[in-house]
């Protein structure tokens, strides 16, 4: 398997290099040179495959021998170890629950798969790999859980003291083993600056093999395509054409859906749903892509003003015959909603369907509803990207009653926090790293 940089199609690397490096030097994003077209018989017989087997079939064709079959099965079995059930709301609407992993959000799929691939490619190295991650809360939890107990890998998570929720903090600080949490007396930006400085420090790099769990690593995107197939598998075979509605921020999830479609999954159309941070809907309607600072909303994991996967979206639609914008706007519809609309959507899903959706999913629900006003004969699948209890303060306020907290989250609250307090001072951080590793 070979991958190129979206900035230069001649800059080719192996899967191993793309995964371990994360980003090409030219600041583009890695993309596979070739996406396999999966056989029609595989798509027609998806129900005969488990979720993990679907992942295996996709990867064995995409990786094309880069990882031997036996190892690949192990990697996928470790990473895809929880379900993605499809719940029907009505004749037209379904919800794909992507929150059954350890951090209760879809990012668990990508983080676990990336951790498995990194530790696989790191085998045979005699020095351990130290992953540095700065987090404002959410991504850190998925990454920490994903890398937990990955062989040959140590994870150091920097988080801003007092600026993450109690449960988010517990997700970072209670795993132990190879995961160490550093509680920084500063802001998220300070945490990020410390990590950046470490990557530029040649003395550190001589002594420690440092890497990052970059959110735009291709290894995070690939497993996200599996659950589009898994969703399709759970639908009745006969019925109206299938459309997917994706609550979006950095547009990784939507990109993974386009990849699934490219590999042969019969998806008729995509709907991109955003909150007030609507630079992509704006691009689709005007042809102008204008990144701007993000604004804070209820669906805060989608508060992104310059979506990092936009370069991959453009790349997927590059075509010599027609303008990229022209093709893209015909295959993706997009809608954006305010916080008060989101609250209304969340309440409506509860009242009408007796289903508790989270604020991100609520944005998706509104977008699908809007789309289906003029596209009635479709079966729409909304990606439910997080469990509502992750946002229980807002959800309970909007619904006016308590909601159920899943067992594994409730358990977390009782575990003891273990973190090392560090001032916001680079020399102290560096010293700690050198002593530790
Ligand atoms: C990260 C995240 C999103 C946005 O996903 P992208 O792939 O960045 O578009 C949506 N919802 C939740 C809950 C998330 O954590």
Defining key terms:
single chain; 437 residues; alpha/beta; 19 helices; 14 strands; 45% helix; globular; binds pyridoxal-5'-phosphate
Walk me through the structure.
The protein is of the alpha/beta class. It has a domain at 83-103 and 221-405: 3-Layer(aba) Sandwich (Rossmann fold), CATH 3.40.50.1100. Helices cover 45% and strands 17% of the residues. It has helices at 15-21, 40-44, 51-63, 69-79, 107-121, 138-147, 166-173, 188-200, 202-207, 218-234, 252-262, 279-286, 310-317, 324-331, 339-353, 359-374, 392-399, 407-414, 426-436, and strands at 2-5, 8-14, 30-32, 86-88, 93-97, 129-134, 153-160, 179-185, 209-212, 242-247, 267-274, 332-336, 379-384, 420-423. The strands form three sheets. Strands 4-5-13-10-11-12 form a six-stranded mixed β-sheet, with helices on both faces. It has a five-stranded parallel β-sheet with strand order 9-6-7-8-14. It has a three-stranded antiparallel β-sheet with strand order 2-1-3. α10 packs across α11. The longest helix is centred in the middle third of the chain and has 17 residues, at 218-234. The chain starts with a strand and ends with a helix. 46% of the residues are buried. The mean pLDDT is 94. It binds pyridoxal-5'-phosphate. Pyridoxal-5'-phosphate binds at residues 105, 107, 138, 247-253, 301-302, 360, 385-386.
């Amino acid at each position: 398997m070979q991958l190129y940089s979206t900035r230069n199609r001649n800059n080719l690397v192996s899967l191993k290099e793309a995964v371990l490096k994360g980003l090409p030097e030219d600041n583009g994003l890695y993309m596979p040179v070739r996406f396999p077209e999966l056989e029609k018989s595989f798509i027609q017989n998806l129900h005969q495959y488990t979720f993990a087997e679907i992942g295996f079939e996709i990867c064995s064709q995409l990786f094309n021998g880069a990882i031997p079959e036996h190892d690949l099965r192990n990697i996928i079995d470790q990473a895809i170890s929880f379900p993605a059930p499809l719940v029907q709301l009505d004749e037209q609407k379904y919800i794909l629950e992507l929150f059954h992993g350890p951090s209760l959000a879809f990012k668990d799929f990508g983080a676990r798969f990336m951790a498995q691939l990194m530790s696989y490619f790191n085998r045979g190295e005699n020095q351990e790999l130290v992953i540095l991650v700065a987090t404002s809360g959410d991504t850190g939890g998925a990454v920490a859980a994903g890398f937990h107990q990955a062989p040959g890998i140590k994870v150091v998570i920097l988080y801003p003291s007092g600026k993450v929720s109690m449960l988010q903090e517990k997700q970072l600080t209670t795993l132990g083993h190879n995961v160490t949490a550093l509680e920084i007396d500063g802001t998220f930006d300070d945490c990020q600056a410390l990590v950046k400085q470490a990557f530029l420090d040649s003395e550190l790099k001589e002594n420690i093999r440092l890497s990052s769990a970059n959110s735009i690593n291709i290894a995070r995107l690939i497993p996200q395509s599996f659950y589009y197939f898994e969703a399709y598998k759970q639908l009745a075979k006969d019925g109206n054409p299938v459309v997917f509605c994706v609550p979006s921020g950095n547009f990784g999830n939507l990109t993974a859906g386009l990849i699934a479609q490219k590999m042969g999954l019969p998806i008729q159309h995509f709907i991109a749903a955003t909150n007030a941070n609507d630079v992509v809907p704006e691009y689709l309607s005007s042809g102008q892509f204008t990144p701007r600072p993000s604004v804070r909303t209820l669906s805060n994991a989608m508060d992104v003003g310059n979506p990092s996967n936009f370069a991959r979206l453009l790349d997927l639609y590059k075509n010599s015959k027609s303008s990229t914008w022209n093709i893209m706007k015909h295959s993706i519809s997009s809608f954006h909603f305010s916080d008060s609309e989101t609250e209304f959507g969340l309440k409506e899903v509860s009242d009408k369907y007796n289903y508790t959706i989270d604020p991100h999913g609520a944005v998706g629900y509104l977008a699908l509803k809007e789309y289906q006003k003029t596209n009635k004969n479709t079966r729409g699948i909304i990606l439910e990207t997080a469990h509502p209890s992750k946002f229980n303060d807002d959800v309970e306020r909007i619904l006016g009653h308590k909601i159920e907290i899943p067992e594994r989250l409730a358990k977390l609250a009782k575990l003891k926090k273990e973190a090392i307090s560090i001032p916001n001072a680079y020399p102290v951080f560096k010293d700690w790293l050198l002593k530790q590793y």
